[in-house]
Each structure stands twice: as structure tokens, then as C-alpha cells.
Description:
- The chain has helices spanning 6-11, 55-60, 121-138, 148-151, 166-174, and strands at residues 17-19, 36-41, 61-62, 65-66, 72-74, 80-82, 95-96, 99-100, 106-111, 145-147, 184-190, 197-203, 211-216, 227-235, 241-242, 255-256, 260-263, 269-275, 280-285.
- It is of the alpha+beta class.
- It has two domains: 6-174, Peptidoglycan recognition protein-like (Lysozyme-like); 184-285, Sandwich (Jelly Rolls).
- The strands form five sheets. It has a six-stranded mixed sheet with strand order 1-6-5-9-2-10. Strands 12, 14, 15, 16 and 18 form a five-stranded antiparallel sheet that branches.
- A hairpin with a 2-residue loop joins β7 and β8.
- α3 crosses α5.
- 41% of the residues are buried.
- The chain binds zinc ion.
- Zinc ion is lined by residues 40, 148, 158, 160.
Amino acid sequence: MYVPWLVDAARSTGYPVVEVPGWQTRGHGGMRVVEGVVGHHTATADSAPGDYPSLDVVTNGRPDLAGPLCNLGLGRSGTVYIVAAGCAYHAGASRWLGFLDLNDEFLGIEAESAGAGSWTAAQLDAYPKLVGALLRYMGRGVERYAGHKDVCVPAGRKIDPVGIDTSWLRARAAGAGNPVGVEILERVTITPSDAGEHVARVFLSGSPGSAIVVRPRLAGDGSARPMWVSNIFAWGSDHVGVGRNPGQLPGYDPKLTSHRRYEVPGAVWADIRYSAAEPFDIDLVG
Ligand SMILES: [Zn+2]
């Protein structure tokens, strides 16, 4: 899939956004899934002029590696550059949370820094906001951010992004706020009678920010018990369908391995078609 919401997510940070022409169809094919974010630094010299001197190389590549080399760039000013909606060669040999070779599974951010650990104040503010926004749009939690140094194979092959501590960034990303509103009205626990397909009906506020967050239970090691949401049918107070039936979206993956948010603006009730072997939670957001 070619991720269509990169610009929307980037704009929600409040920082300027530059769309690199052709970003919508740039990639080494599409993303297979969109499950997280990997952070990098560009390692371009501090003496290179401009806000994002690495733009040409991350877009078009270098003699030994064809571009795009990231999905998004982060300039010295905090400006976000939208480079590629498809698969970018940013992570190389990599492994993380059961994912293998993350290029077509995780979005890559190449932030402008020489790699000595120096960042502008704008970047230290914008980097976690951008990560938080991307994860929110993909319906994933901050644990789905990692630095290249955390995911590279073999371990120690990469050190980037130097000066950006993974735990620090996750904590900042979690606190970056949600412009849509994440007030949890109610948490409903669903206990399936068996692992077959069932429908759970939930009742919502009908507000413009109404959403459903489906939360598989976590095992002791922090990994989620997999479950499936094949579709959601949401209805407004006038009995007209609202939101989008996710099962009809191109590239929709019904398998949930972490919590996922479904926007159902204006919905007063929704039927969630699921299969799960174990109890799970649904947060109703307004
Ligand atoms: Zn890297």
C-alpha cells in the first residue's frame, strides 16, 4: 500500500510540511503493512547549507543504494518533508517485535543531523511529535517506535539516531496530544464464547470525534494476543451509516497485533465484526 495520510499526520504536528513531488507513488513497491516507525539521522555534515540538505539523497538514493531511503525527512527547522508513501530502503537487515526486515512494515524518518548527537531545539520538539502523529494515524502505540540502533541486524551495526534516546522519544510521543480527542467514555470488555466470528454492538456519543479503539489483551511479555476485526458498521442517530467500513479499504489488514483506532464520526452505535480466542477490550472515545 502507498500510505495516503502522511501529509495529514505531519501537519498535525503544527510544523511546516513540504510535499516532495511524486511522494504519493514513490517507493520500492508499496508497504506490505504499516506497523511502526524507525528513527534515523542522515549523517550529512553540519556544514551542508540549508534546512534539509539530505533531501536529494534520501529521495533519489546514492550510487550503491537506490532511493527512496526514507518515508519522511525532518529538517533542522522542524519542517517535515514527505518523501515516499511506499517502501523505502531505510532499515536494511533488521528485526523488531517479531517483524523481520522492516522496510515494508515500518515507516522511516531521516532527521537532519551529522550524527554527533547535536539537534536543534525545533527538532527535539518536532521529532517526537511526528512519531506520535504517525503512530496515531496507524493506530499503534508508542512501543512501535524504535531507533535504527534498536532494530538493526546484527546488533551494533547502526548507531542512529545518536542523541535521541528511544525511551525519551516514546515518552514525549505519548504526551504529544491528540488533536482529534482521546477522552475515553467507557471501556467495554468482550468475552467471546468461542474463536469464531461474532458481532459486538457498542453505543457511542454521536460526537464528531467518536471513535472505537479495539485492544487485544497483552501477554506477560508485552506482545498482544492476536485477534481479527473484519469490519465495522457504524450508524448515526438518523439511521444513516457513518464512518468507513474498514473491511472495504484497500490494504486493510483485519489481524490486530496491537490496539487499533477506528474513526466513526457521528456514530451512536456500531457493530464490530470480530473473531478472538480470548477476552479483549473496546474503548469508546468521544
Ligand atoms: Zn539509519
